[in-house]
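Q&A log
Question type: sequence-to-structure
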Amino acid sequence: MLDLILAVFIATYLGMAFGRWPGLAIDRTGIALIGAIVLVAAGALTLEGAARAIDLPTLLLLFGLMIVSAQYAASGFYDGVAARVARMGGSPRKLLAGVIAVAGGLSALLANDIVVFAMTPLLCVGLRQRGLNPTPYLIALACAANAGSAATLIGNPQNILIGQIGNLDFVAFLGYCAVPALLALAVVFAVIAWQWRGRWTDGVSDGVDLSAIPLARDKRQFAKALAATGVLLLLFFTDAPRELSALAVAALLLLSRKVSSRELVGAVDYSLLLLFAGLFVVTGALAATPLAAEAFEGLAAAGWLPDRLATLTPLALLLSNTIGNVPAVILLLKVWPAPPDGALYGLALLSTLAGNLLIAGSLANIIVAERAAAAGVTLGFADHAKSGVPITLISMAFAAIWLWITGALPF
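Response status: OK
Response body:
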């Protein structure tokens, strides 16, 4: 049975690395689910064992946060923000700064994947309307969403998972990660502004008028979303379980006379939740075998545990840009029992910033590229890498130095 578990594990994470299995129209979520199903069907795990392997509080917290974000979408807030940013006055560099500030700020409080999913199409339209080349702004949108999301425990899926499993304090996490996240946003601006200087326009204009789009087409629903966010943040500063706080706020949002519960629940990214569940089962099956314990003991004896920056930084960079930062975090946390808090802060921060290296490094990058393509704009692999590589290396260097200075992790 160990051979089967190992084979399924390898096949699953190869699928995470390549995004598909050759010859099949299957994505990462489908690969993770098939891996989990094979293990249960073959008897490598019982249904009860599979259920225990899934970290339900993490999925519930993520679900609740998605409902809150769906409330913003229902109010028209994301469309309004994208339209306002796109028609912002001033120079192209000022517009670049606006895109970075908005994407980074929103992603720190709302799931970064949902922010870029909502903002990308209208931003493309607005940039085309002004005759601007969308490419540098789309790179900035993706990289800033990743960088901004690194600041908080609720900014992205991997931070949510790390915070739940490590029971990390919301304020302490902010203290360790907010400054490097802000520095990373500055790096995003500096690199893109320098690389694209003098090349902001492409002479193409769609002639689409965005001036009539308000910040929020339904101010009551927008106020409701703001109130829900405020209550949720207050609850996060208490000892109340974060997943229960998020579910309670989500339940209140579903009690609406105007926005149907079907609309809010339908906006949840179930594919991401299923990806988490499938990977929990596959990695949990391997973690329960003697092989995982022996490998961990071997790494510990050799001094290769990722509890120091010299090990964690390159490991986060490698794994995030091969299997992806979410699968990487799930894998490490399943096979690494009781990591210290400092290592968890470092894992959250470094795995998120590492996702800016390549388009495949994070789900936010992939979403921007796919949503832009649907709007008629191509975000090429080379264009993203040209900016993403220096952004990632510089911002990760700053983050590592900060983690060392604050005493979170030794070198």
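Response note: The CA atoms of residues 354 and 393 lie 8 Å apart.
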